[in-house]
Every structure is written in structure tokens, then in C-alpha cells.
Amino acid sequence: MTTYMSFDVGGTTIKYAYVDEQGKVTEKQAFPTVDNAEKLISQMVAVVKDYAAKKTIAGIGISAPGIVRHDGFMLTGGAIQAFNGYPLAATIATQTGLPVAVENDANAAAIAEQWQGNAVGCQNYLTVVLGTGVGGGIVINGDVYRGSHGMAGEFGWNVTHDVDPTHELESFSLNQHAAVVSGLVNRYNQSKQQVAADATPVTDAREVFAAAKAGESIAQVEVAGFVQDVAIMLLNLFANFDPELILVGGGISANDDFINLLQAKLAEMIARHESLNRIKNIALGRVKPAKLRNDAGLIGATYQIKKRLESEAKHE
Q1: Angle, to 10 degrees, between the axis of helix 88-96 and the axis of helix 37-52?
Q2: Are 304 and 108 spatial neighbours (Cβ–Cβ below 8 Å)?
Q3: I need a labelling partner for 224 at 20 to 30 A (CA). Which of 113, 218, 269, 305 fits?
Q4: Residue 101: enclosing H or E segment and its boundaries?
Q5: Residue spans of beta strands (DSSP E) within 105-233
Q6: pTM of the prediction?
Q7: Distance between CA 31 and CA 303 in Å, rounded?
Q8: Strands (DSSP E) along the chain, which ranges?
Q9: What are the backbone dihedrals phi and psi of residue 234, each rounded to the nearest 5 degrees, phi first?
């Protein structure tokens, strides 16, 4: 069975594993991320050589933050500044002698769902990843859409609130309202400290949802606002892309209370939107949680190198 080496590069850790041609992830490990390109490359190459000594590797897939060109050149590296303007695919390929595909992390998570997740058989769909910010992946006719510069899917940059000219514009973006960390958790902490300056900040959205469920008014207000902001984003995405499916990912997608609240709010808002309400039963897609969570980046990165090598083999 063909085996691939996959890396999921994050701001805190770099996960790596074997992934086979059926999407099975084995021998997963990780090492800490440092903002030093030379050191990261050295560690990644060492891992590849170690794994290749135990099992034949057909190619390497890498999921990484930032804006990634189709050829694996990093225009930006997201939280990893050392990867700004960096030829990641070419460097790894040269040092390992193996073919390499690099994909933006949100795009990797999106395409993984087509292979092994909740978008199997779906050709036109979106993924929305709710985390520190709001990431997104766009799949059109079965392929990831990257845009002219590789940055398509930055849904979090959209401005959806009234603009105050005395503030920086991005403070009104979805990244500050519909994200889990910079949105819900941060706004809850700020709101709570307005009432009690010595309130201990929370770090997990589950604490906010638990407080709301227990009847705390501040938590209820912030959860309601967060859910509405996410629903508005989905409403706009349906109008802009006409997807068959929107998959909501990130750790919060495993929270049934959140998914139920979101589905109810979205249904309410569609009912209030004359044009969308008119077509809701004949030409409007669905919203579901993403299936793949922690392994989505590893699986999606592998799927891209797998598809490329299979395509090249057909044309030989």
C-alpha cells in the first residue's frame, strides 16, 4: 500500500505522521514550532529520513498557515514569520529527494473532508474553521480555489459590523466577532471585567457556553452575539458562493449546543431574508459540522500530494 509522509505545521507544534492511500493516519508525533526556517526545515527533513528508513514514502504533504502559492511557495507564513517569502516545497524536495505538495491549512482541512469526511461526493462546498480567527476553504468543481495570490478563503477579514472611523477597520471584522478566541472568549472576558475588574479570564469557549447554560446573563449575551455573527457569515457565504454544503470546523464544532443554536439562528435569519427564504427548499445548501478535526490537516495535505502524483502517473 502506498504511504505518504504528512506534516501539519501549526503556530505551536508541527504534527507529522504516515498517511496511507486510504487516509489512515499512523505513528503520529509532534515537535515544537520555532520561528526559524532553517531549524524547522532541518527538523522536518530529519523526520522524513527517519520515517523513510522504516517505510517507503511516495511523497510529502504539508499543511501550513499563511498564503501558499500553487507551487508551494509561501508568500506569507501566518504565525511563522520565518516562512514569509519562503520556497517551502522546493526546499524540502531538494533536501529529501521526494515530491512535495504544500497547502494552506484551511484549504487542507477543506479538501480532507472531500476524501474522508462529510463532503464525500460533494463538488462545491465551503469549510469555515472557527478558532483563534476565522479561516476558510473553498472547493469548486472538486478542486481547492486559491484565488490569484493564494489567499482565497480569508472569510475572517470580512467586515460585517457598522464601521467606527475612530477605530482600526479590522476590529469590525469577523475575526473579532465570529472567531472563538478573538471573538467569543475575548469579548466575554472584556464584558465580564467591566462588571467585575478582578474576574478571572476564561480561556476555553466551553466555559462560556456552560455559564450561559447556567443562566449567567453576560455569557448569554455574548453567546447569542457570537452565534448571530457566525450565522450572518454563513448567510453571506450562501449568497456569494451557492455551495451545496458549508462545513463548520474547529474544536467548537464538536459542541452540540453550539451547532444546535447555530442551526436555529440560521433558520431564523433565512426566514427573515426574503430572497433566501424563497429558495430555501429548492436552491439552498446545508450546514453541517466538519467530520475531521485534529487530523484534518494531515489528511488534507496527503490528499493533495496523492492526487498530484496520480495525475502525473496518468500522463506519463
Answers
A1: 40
A2: yes
A3: 113
A4: strand 100-104
A5: 125-130, 134-140, 143-144
A6: 0.86
A7: 22
A8: 3-9, 13-20, 25-32, 60-64, 73-74, 86-87, 100-104, 125-130, 134-140, 143-144, 245-249, 286-289
A9: -65, -40
